[in-house]
Design a protein that fits this description.
41% of the residues lie in helices and 0% in strands. It contains three helices and no strands.
């Protein structure tokens, strides 16, 4: 959430039971998910739509997160 905040993106903790692969890998390594909002809250639905601006922000958070992880190894 720190990266999202640093990039002035709205961030929140979600209380959800997402069964993504993160559940399996978090037992061995730290893991998290980056969610972007879908119009009307629809997910896994043919009518799901996410605005390009939201996708841009999600990608920016991902890229910055990866950059920080890589540069922390130096």
């Amino acid at each position: 959430m720190a990266v999202a905040s640093d990039l002035h993106c709205k961030a929140m903790t979600l209380k959800t039971v997402t069964g993504h692969d993160v559940l399996a890998i978090q037992k061995r390594i730290p893991a998290s998910l980056i969610f972007v909002p879908s119009q009307g809250g629809l997910s896994h639905n043919p009518r799901e739509f996410t605005a390009p601006e939201a996708l841009d922000k999600g990608c920016a958070v991902l890229v910055e997160t990866l950059w920080r992880m890589v540069t922390a190894l130096e």
